[in-house]
Amino acid sequence: MKKASETEVLEHVCKEAKMKKRVIKAHLSRLSTVFGSRFTKAWEALNKRRIKKYVFKPSGRVVWIVVGKEREYLVMPAADFCSCDDFYFRAMNRKIHLCYHLIAQKLAEALEVYDLVEENDQLYDSLIEEWKKVTP
Questions:
Q1: Orientation of helix 6-20 relative to helix 25-35, angle to 10°
Q2: 3-class SS at 37?
Q3: Collapsed DSSP state (helix, strand, coil) of residue 135
Q4: How do 51-57 and 115-120 pair as beta strands?
Q5: Closest by Cα among 102, 122, 126, 86 to 6
Q6: Which residue stretches of 36-89 are H helix?
Q7: pLDDT tens column, 4-56
Q8: For residues 17 and 12, what is the distance between their CA atoms, to the nearest angstrom?
Q9: What value does the mean pLDDT take over residues 96-109?
Q10: Is this model's pTM higher than 0.85 or not?
């Protein structure tokens, strides 16, 4: 039997979590085994409600942000992309596939545990520019 990829494991857990509205103990253990400290950090971010879903009106555009230790990180779940250094240096070099911000976002979305922020479309460009800035 082929070993499941990180993405497959997370997708399976998120699908189950969405249906049951919680993550069962066996899945917590599996996530910890597969992701190690990345899962620990993701779970902490989730429990501290550091995941934000921005919905811009009237367009309906959605932007996901995870508040990290140094700044806010732009996460694009459909593309498995994050603006953090860990993603850039480790995921782009194929050492890992998902940073903890992506793991946190996917779990938060499945469990519906995030802060919903509604903003006017006029703020979209300025907020995106702010989120794209590199840490000084």
A1: 160
A2: helix
A3: coil
A4: parallel
A5: 102
A6: 37-47, 85-86
A7: 688 899 999 999 999 999 999 999 999 999 999 999 999 999 999 999 999 99
A8: 9
A9: 93
A10: yes
